[in-house]
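hi! just following up on the protien thing from before. the input was this:
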Amino acid sequence: MTEEKVKIPNNIGNVIAIMSGKGGVGKSLVAALTAIALKKQGFNVGILDADITGPSIPKIFGITEKPEVSENGMHPVKSKTGIGIMSINLLLPNEDEAVIWRGPLIGKAITEFWEDVYWGNLDYLIVDLPPGTADAPLTVLNSLPVSGIIIVFTPQDLTAMVVRKAVNMAKKMDKHILGVVENMSYLYIPELDKKMEIFGKSRGEEMSQTAGAPLLAQIPIDIELVKLCDEGKIEEYESPAFNSLIQNLNQLINKK
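and the predicted 3d structure came back as:
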């Protein structure tokens, strides 16, 4: 990290946290797609990767550059479409380096990403949270002016049970849940024109009712999406499910 402090104040309109009580459900994917969807609507967007021990945002955007430092602080690295990104992986000697830190140090890093990074003028800052309801999510919800939360889940019963914990955490901390996203919802087989629910029946409506928030998207298991993430080209992704996310986010924005 750097000793430089931000001298010009940031101007950030909305902070949206992407959250789930369960790991492996695709929070980073949803954080990336949410940022891209907002960028496509003409907003200035940034992503704060708060998953300090398991960062994946730089990889799926194909970013390897180190952040520049000026008298205003560290500058987020820009993606191909202009999304500002800050992640611990951009500060490590190599992307495979393990971050073996205890909770307080992880919380301090997240706070510094908020306070010591010159985000500039943003309409939306997307915060990719690690799984669970412990130190890191607590730091974000307590320290950052979170405007709303998007809950991510997959159809399995076990996942739904754990994700309810995140929903309850958000409600207890009086944080507004903007919507829910079901990832790995189904596999579409074009030859049969059929959707197969690999991980069980969709729980989209159930989780929407639990969270008291709309279902923003049901993202399928998509080989093309996996390929683009592996190649760092997620900004090229197009699909009906992604278009649904764009439209539903647009409706939320217009209600404000």
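Residues 104 and 135 are 8 Å apart (CA to CA).
The chain is about 35% helix and 20% strand.
cheers
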